[in-house]
Amino acid sequence: MPTINVTEGCAHGCAYCYIRGYPGYPGASRVILFDNIPELVRAELSRKRRPPARVYFSPSSDAFQPLAEVRQVTYETMSSLLARGVEVAFLTKGRVGERFGAMFARRPGRVFAQVGITTLSGDLARATEPRAASPAERLRTIDRLVRAGVATTARLDPLVPDLTDTEENLRPLLAELRRRGVRTVAASYLFLRPALAPRIAETLRILTGWSHAAGDWRWHRFADGVGGGRMIGPEARRERFWRLRALAAARGIEVRVCACKNPDLPFARDCRIAGPEPPAAHRAEAPLFGTP
Questions:
Q1: CATH number of the structural domain spanning residue 178
Q2: Residues 6+ apart with CB under 8 A from 194
Q3: CA pair distance 237, 272, nearest whole angstrom
Q4: For residues 24 and 52, is the Cβ–Cβ distance under 8 A?
Q5: Is 71 inside a domain boundary?
Q6: Three-state DSSP class for 42?
Q7: pLDDT tens across 4-56, in order?
Q8: Per the structure, how many domains does the chain have?
Q9: pTM
Q10: Which of 155, 117, 138, 169 is nearest to 261 (CA)?
Q11: Are 20 and 229 in contact (CB under 8 A)?
């Protein structure tokens, strides 16, 4: 599936973010915007006999950062894709405003969203995701997307052991999601790239008082050879996921445990981060956009 990052780097500044270890990461206080993406996409679509079925935003950044210039590029790019009949999928921890809601409502069934949210605590969210949308703003984003007819999933990822996966934290969160029409959540646990593990663990300790022997977590490989990181072991994850699933089931919510990050758990499956699979015939011919 074609993917688009509208930026290198991200203004949200999440303490646990793995993109900090990427070679092209521009630094914690710098975001590089590719402001010519809309024209590149329009030019490429005009050359294609058949456009791709769907495009996913943004695997290594967030398309809805709190920067007007970033949101404008996102709006123009998504508008061009939807106008050509190309579906749009995204994961965000940002605020999706009214004009996006209006645009999505004009294309029912063509937009697939996951909204990252792991707590209702404003203090905890500010400590770990300092410039992302507040939990209250993310709930309003979910409301807006659901009203616009967007297939919307809440993404409980990364859950931090004994910090955001406690019953005290999850019970009210799941209740609020259910009240807003969410029927499915995707979930996975924090993983730490080896080079970043000590720094991230120390940052979480300072910001939240979290105390965990993250340095002792074993190396865990993701599915299909896409890398991995240090993670709590499979038995601990199994037990914690079952507890989450029981809490969610009591509220009529299905939990999809991410198979990409949990290939060692038999009940893990496709978390549909980019929506359900497009039709196979269309998927086979989907071109890739050039790198801006």
A1: 3.80.30.30
A2: 219, 229, 230
A3: 20
A4: no
A5: yes
A6: helix
A7: 999 999 999 998 888 887 888 898 889 999 999 999 999 999 998 899 999 99
A8: 1
A9: 0.92
A10: 155
A11: no
